[in-house]
Amino acid sequence: MKKFLIWLFALLVVLLLVLRGIPFLINSYLNANADRIVTNLITRASLFGDHQVTFGQILLDYDYFGTYLKIRDIKVKPSEELDEEHIRMDLTIDQLDLTGFKWSEFLLRNSISVDSALISKMIIISSTPPLDSLQQRPRKPKKAKSKDYESLSVKYFDLNDLSIELVNNLYDSVRISLQDMDLKVQGFRLTKDDIQDPQSLFHVDVVKGSIGEAVFHFDQFRQHALVKDIILDTDNQSMFFGYMGLLNKQGKYQYTSQFAERQSWTEIDNAKLDLRGVHFGSFFRKGIIEVDSVFASDMRVEIFVDKRKVEDRQKRPQMVHQLFKDLGQVIHIDHIFVNNAYLKIEERPDNKSPRSGFLYFSDMQVHIINFSNFVERRGENKLLKLEASGKLMGQGMLKALAQYELESEKGDFTLKGSLGPMELKALDPMIEPQSQATVKSGKLNSLVFDIKGNDYDGTGQLTVLYENLELALLNPNFERDNNFFRKVGSFLANTLIIKSNNPKKNGETVAGTVYYIRDTHKSMFAYWWKLIFSGLKSTLTGDDLEELKKKEQIRLAETTNSSKTLVSQKSDVSKTASEHEKSSHKERREERRQNKKTD
After folding, report:
1. How far, in Å, CA of 341 to CA of 288, rounded?
2. Is the peptide bond before 503 cis (omega within 30 degrees of 0)?
3. How wide is the angle at C-alpha 296 spanned by C-alphas 294 and 297, nearest 5°?
4. How far apart are CA 111 and CA 369, in angstroms?
5. Is the CB of residue 194 less than 8 Å from the CB of residue 202?
6. What integer is the mean pLDDT of 523-552?
7. Which of 70, 119, 202, 350 is 20 to 30 A removed from 373 (C-alpha atoms)?
8. CB under 8 Å to 395, separation ≥6 — which residues?
9. Share of the chain above pLDDT 90, in %
10. Dihedral sign, CA of 38, 43, 48, 53?
11. CB of 54 within 8 A of CB of 38?
12. Residue of 344, 256, 272, 342 whose CA lies nearest to 305
């Protein structure tokens, strides 16, 4: 019995030495070869295959539950052999702590599996050729045995102070920038299938944290989208943007002068977004944007068009149903609420006016329902609704309801609305530059319209009630003067052409008829305006529906002929663009002065 106890004790001692000795030997080997092992872990991924890796301090500590890895001052740089036709990564990490690294996953399944990861102060700068060149470049055949991992999984991921920049090699400028990212992630998993699937990103159970700033540059770096103070939480299915803007690096005249044909200048500023009911899983796994409600506030939108530029009549802006059908992104948003928005539309007319014309809407409230091309989610609801209200020129309250049938082949829609009382003199900033006339007096009491349309044409009724309308013609400098002939012209216009009151003095109310054939090269909003304007014109001219249809057919024929003539004059477009660029120098100086006043 005594001998048995001695042997048992000896066996336990040997077993203890083995159990303690194996980790000791493994740790000795791992730390002696730490640089080579960790470099192989990083460069095994094809993205870093042609890169060089250096480290500061490395500590590996193995036990039977996994390996603890602690690294300081990681630097990954592209090798000299990697030219600018390929993706180049420049990565630095101050601190990387991994616990529970599974060697069995790495050696037997070519995968990385970690219990937890802490990364502090990580900066990634990726230099790539233009994205279109990467998409057009034929893919090289894959090697029989890929170096890429089958999967990467982390149970708990703590990411502190991450910054990412994607740089375009052609312009040596930042294309995308993400700054000050602090995220806590649970259940992260990235597989080779995710990388090969263009719709999938990765799987994650929980993400919470913030991103200080995100910037995306486009339009040859003339414009950029800027988002600040992003907060996201998958538990609450929420996402918040403290600031969002679509900004221009050039003024409106400088920007539009660079194009031979008409190109709009658009800027969005000061928007805040609150997204609720965000289905993060649908986006991460399937690339589907699925949100219950979006709340936007304090958005300021400005649009500018220089009408002295030649129109591109070959352009075909899509109507709503076509846009949703052909959109490359699957999206579904039940409700979009816009509060306290401001919209300014400015046009430089094709005449000798010394200034542009504009109108604006303030205190805007917008509600969009069923913004969706996700057929499985929207179900039987095939109607997109847009309800909007706002003050025109700070006075008349405009209310509108637009409804589009998303599955209609003809793009059927309805447009209804009303405009409340306002002084017509308030419309002078738009009327004077466009028509070389000014409103001397007049009051709008109400305007009501009811329109049905499709991709080809639209018809309906419009009734505008006003009183004491009187116009005055302006001189060649677009100013009022005491010229006798202009006074006579103004008198004749107010007496013979313009009806000063509606209802008339005898109590008869003139209702306008709406009819317009869509200009296929213009936007949906231009189409809406032309439909409403046709009703305003017919109120003055008295044209009925049949007369309007005849006039529209004549206009359409003339437009077609002028388009053919325009094509033959394409060689003169560049000369015209150069002349407009010269003439816009003065306007750009005025624009800079206005910006200084605003600041």
Report:
1. 28
2. yes
3. 155
4. 45
5. yes
6. 90
7. 202
8. 421, 422, 423, 426
9. 43
10. positive
11. no
12. 256
Please state, in angstroms and rounded to a whole number, the distance separating the CA atoms of residues 518 and 531. Answer: 9
What would the 3-class secondary structure string for 187-222 be?
Answer: EEEEEHHHHHCCCCCCECCEEEEEEEEEEEEECCCC
Question: What tokens does 386 get?
Answer: 């847009």
The strand pairing partners of 528, in sequence order, are: none
CA 340 to mean position of chain CA atoms: 20
Cα 472–Cα 478–Cα 479 angle in degrees, nearest 5? 65
pLDDT of residue 146: 45
List the structure tokens of 549.
């249809």
Q: How many residues does the chain have?
A: 599
Report the distance separating Cα 260 and Cα 575, nearest Å.
9
* pLDDT band, very low/low/confident/very high, at 497 (cuts 50, 70, 90): low
Query: pLDDT by residue (tens digit) across 349-371?
Result: 998 888 899 999 999 999 999 99
447-468, pLDDT tens digit by residue?
999 999 999 999 999 999 999 8
Strands (E), 287-395: 289-297, 300-306, 331-348, 357-372, 383-392
> For residue 408, what are its two tokens?
């209609």
DSSP code, position 141:
P
- Could you tell me which residues are beta bridge partners of residue 352? none
295-317 b/e (C-beta count within 10 Å ≥ 16 → b): ebeebbbbbbbbebbbeebeeee
- Say which DSSP state 424 is in: G
- Dihedral angle of Cα 559, 565, 571, 574, to the nearest 10 degrees: -30
Beta strands 331-348 and 289-297 are: parallel
